[in-house]
Automatic annotation (TrEMBL):
PANTHER family in UniProt: ENDOLYTIC PEPTIDOGLYCAN TRANSGLYCOSYLASE RLPA
Provenance organism: Haloferula sargassicola
EC number(s) stated in the UniProt entry for this protein: 4.2.2.-
Its biological purpose: Lytic transglycosylase with a strong preference for naked glycan strands that lack stem peptides.
Pfam families with a match to the protein in the record: DPBB_1
Signal peptide range: 1-17
InterPro entries per the UniProt record, alphabetical: RlpA, RlpA-like_DPBB, RlpA-like_sf, RplA
HAMAP family assigned: RlpA
Record keywords: Cell membrane, Cell wall biogenesis/degradation, Lipoprotein, Lyase, Membrane, Palmitate, Signal
Protein's cellular compartments: Cell membrane
Gene: rlpA_1
Lineage of producing organism: Bacteria, Pseudomonadati, Verrucomicrobiota, Verrucomicrobiia, Verrucomicrobiales
Protein name as annotated: Probable endolytic peptidoglycan transglycosylase RlpA
Membrane topology according to the record: Lipid-anchor
Family recorded in the similarity comment: Belongs to the RlpA family.
Length: 167
């Protein structure tokens, strides 16, 4: 009986970890949804990406119902993950999403494709939407900025600031 309890606790702890998978590098493979083909950005373009638009949130997970969704990278989706879906960013990447109404921000790991509804630019997990204060509303105007691409090897470099006209 003790072994069974230990195994169950170990499985629960393993499923609680943040989704990182064993994915190395990044994915920019083109794909087609509902007859439309999408061509993801390259690393350099993604590292310079910033956009303001409409965000929504989605929930493809369940904890006690034992149903778990998976992302385009094959990673498990749990309600407490700060993850996101984007149509054309390389997978995976890390973005900073800022709610333009209240200024709250959250870092999310983009590991899925979407949203494919209207003019929305990003779908967030329930936890991420709650952190920036729009889970109850369903939609928000946000700013999205890429921080890194892939396994973290590719990062946005800070813009140089002018110092007495030298730089």
């Amino acid at each position: 009986m003790r072994w069974l309890v230990l195994i169950l606790i170990g499985a629960l702890l393993a499923s609680c970890a943040q989704p990182h998978g064993n994915y190395h590098g990044y994915m920019t493979r083109s794909y087609t949804v509902r007859g439309r083909t999408y061509h993801p950005m390259g690393v350099d373009q993604a590292l310079g990406y910033g956009e303001v638009g409409t965000a929504s949130w989605y929930d493809e997970s369940s904890f006690f119902g034992l149903k778990r969704g998976t992302t385009s990278l094959g990673e498990k989706v749990m309600p407490w993950h700060n993850i996101a879906a984007h149509k054309t960013l390389p997978l995976p990447c890390v973005v900073k999403v800022t709610n333009m109404e209240n200024g709250k921000s959250v870092k999310c790991r983009v590991n899925d494709r979407g949203p494919f509804i209207g003019d929305r630019i990003i779908d967030l997990s329930p936890r991420a939407a709650k952190k920036i204060g729009f889970r109850d509303q369903g939609l928000a105007t946000v700013q999205v900025e890429v921080l890194s691409v892939g396994d973290g090897k590719y990062k946005r470099t800070p813009r140089r600031k002018w110092f007495f006209g030298i730089f």
